[in-house]
Amino acid sequence: xxxxxxxxxxxxxxxxxxxxxxxxxxxxxxxxxxxxxxxxxxxxxxxxxxxxxxxxxxxxxxxxxxxxxxxxxxxxxxxxxxxxxxxxxxxxxxxxxxxxxxxxxxxxxxxxxxxxxxxxxxxxxxxxxxxxxxxxxxxxxxxxxxxxxxxxxxxxxxxxxxxxxxxxxxxxxxxxxxxxxxxxxxxx
Length: 188
Ligand SMILES: [Zn+2]
Description:
The chain has five helices and ten strands. The protein is of the alpha/beta class. Residues 32, 135, 143, 145 line the site of zinc ion.
């Protein structure tokens, strides 16, 4: 079954203490799996001792939990490099799927919910398909999320939804004009 576009998934908020108030550059998105269930992941993010957080967690039914506001820095990537730039936490939003993609594929709801999450940011933040990546690729040899087949599946859905885009460059990731920070969240 192809993911159904236009679905609106439930949203909840549990704000994690594990974050920096520093302005996030929001140059793209870094995908993870959490390796545990939805509730268990939220509990870990709410524990200051864990010192980890994602901006958003997607449950098996597509429910999205916001854990860190997009405008702040979440602690999801650790040592990492993308397009030649270190410290992905500074410039890539962290979004995680509950579960372990090596043990079970993403649910259709998770894929659809991720596309919905991306769709709310893609145009306002000027993203293209070269600005989304997974943890495995930015921390090679250290991290295994996502399973490569599941990443390929997700990325093909991203390409079919948003197109291949312009292609990011290192210079393109160095900075972004901050004048449109007020564009997010969009007015309702
Ligand atoms: Zn990860």
